[in-house]
Structures are given as structure tokens and as C-alpha cells.
Write a structure and sequence with these properties.
It is a single chain. This protein is α+β, with helices and mostly antiparallel strands and 178 residues long. Strands 1, 2, 3, 4, 5 and 6 form a 6-stranded antiparallel β-sheet that branches.
Length: 178
């Protein structure tokens, strides 16, 4: 399967963390999607595609992912994204690739999203969050993980404490000072 990653998964460290192994091929070949731009998802650090004639979204092409990799990526992308075939421009011209487009649950912010800004401002935070989120993989399904996460967020519970509670690993994740 061929993928076009334009957001967090275009970062090799995040991708490796999500799939649980080193994905060969980094740095991945560049590509771009025409007539779109990236904005942040409202109240989040990650992006979504929005139609924008005359604009283009940079990203990378990743191939060689397994079915298990795809299951882990689908879990990571949660209920906000789903794979969709798109035509992107690569070094050899137009190619078809799967990209994770947002579902109706994602609400766009007007703030533009760039990989450089995300890497500088949010990457360390999102690496930690991704590591904790992927702790749910194989323990609960994605809908249950999302429900638990939203409940925890509403009451101010840390993701570390939620993971410890759900996965039964209190000494590994328990946050200090609580």
C-alpha cells in the first residue's frame, strides 16, 4: 500500500512510534497534494486538509507498510480520520495514494498548520501523547479509547493516569504530584 502522509505521520519518529517498529525508507520521498491547504483541527495540534484552489500541501510517500501497521495507524488516527484515496504529485508525476482525511468529527481552525511550526512547538508533546495513546492499542478498541480520553479530558485527568487506570500499569505512567 502507498500512503501520502502530510501531518504527524510524515515525521519518521512519530510513524515509527505508532507502528511499533522502524519503517524503512526515511527520509521518505516528497510529494504534494494540489488544491488543498492545511489548518489545525480546532483545539488540537494536528492538521486537516481543506480545499483551497491554488494551494498545495507538502507531504511524503510511504510504502511497504503491513496490515498490522495499517491497523495501528487506523487506531492512532482514531475517530477523526479515515483513509481516502487521493491523487498526489510525486517525482514521477501523479500517483494514487491513501491519505488520512478528517471525518465530520474534526472541526477546522483558521490557524494554518505547517510541519516546521508543529515540529518546533508541539512535537515533543505529541510524541508523549502518541506513546500514551498507543498504550491503548490491543487493550480497548478505538471508540472506547476515544470515549475514555474525552471523559478524562473533561474532568482534567491526565492521559498518564488514564492509561495507568485502563492498562493497569500505575508505576509506569502515574504522573507525579497528584
Amino acid at each position: 500500500m502507498r500512503f501520502f502522509f502530510f501531518g504527524l505521520l510524515s515525521d519518521p519518529e512519530i510513524l515509527n512510534l505508532v507502528v511499533g517498529r522502524d519503517v524503512p525508507g526515511a527520509p521518505f520521498p516528497p510529494a504534494h497534494l494540489e488544491a488543498h491547504r492545511l489548518v489545525r483541527v480546532q483545539r488540537e495540534t494536528f492538521p486537516m486538509l481543506v480545499a483551497a484552489p491554488g494551494s498545495r500541501v507538502p507531504g511524503v510517500i510511504v510504502e511497504g507498510l503491513t496490515e498490522d501497521d495499517l491497523a495501528r495507524i487506523n487506531f492512532f488516527e482514531s475517530v477523526e480520520y479515515e483513509p481516502k484515496p487521493l491523487i498526489v504529485q510525486a517525482g514521477d508525476g501523479p500517483i494514487e495514494a491513501l491519505a488520512f482525511a478528517t471525518t465530520e468529527r474534526a472541526v477546522p481552525d483558521q490557524e494554518p498548520w505547517t510541519y516546521q511550526d508543529w515540529s518546533r512547538r508541539f512535537k515533543a508533546h505529541d510524541m508523549r501523547e502518541a506513546r500514551l495513546w498507543m498504550s491503548f492499542y490491543g487493550v480497548v478498541d478505538v471508540e472506547e479509547a476515544d470515549r475514555l480520553y474525552e471523559e478524562a479530558r473533561a474532568i482534567g485527568q491526565t492521559l498518564e493516569d488514564l492509561v495507568a487506570e485502563v492498562c493497569g500499569e500505575p508505576h509506569r505512567f502515574r504522573s507525579r504530584g497528584r
